[in-house]
Amino acid sequence: MAKRTAARRIGRPSKGPRVAIGTRIPEAHGTQLRSVASDRGWYHSETAAALISVGLRHLQEATAPAPGTDALMIRVPQTDGQRVRDIAAELDWSYSDTAAALIAVGLRHLDELPAKSSTTPSNPAQQELPLTRAS
């Protein structure tokens, strides 16, 4: 009988426990977010989550967000998600508006984003595939 080798895991490495945030951001912010994502080879949700993380480091700059029309569904680390919820409760803002405000702050501090994600496909053709339920 042949020796079994360890099965190779397929797919991207886990980013850890995540929570979903649905938000709407101003169209100008959505355009800038998509540009940043494209420049770095990231997904839009991944970029928004990174911008929220940066925004949390500069919370004192957050102001009530302008009404948004660009809808996003973002999966953020649980710890960031809980911080967003706590801040929303403290400021008496909605969870969605708080996320939008933090994205706006993150966009002002783009220099703090990492240059490249190691979990994003390196083949540009892979990034253009339609998302599936597992995505």
From TrEMBL:
Lineage: Bacteria, Bacillati, Actinomycetota, Actinomycetes, Pseudonocardiales
Bias kind Polar residues: ranges: 116-126
Region (Disordered): 113-135
Protein name, per record: Uncharacterized protein
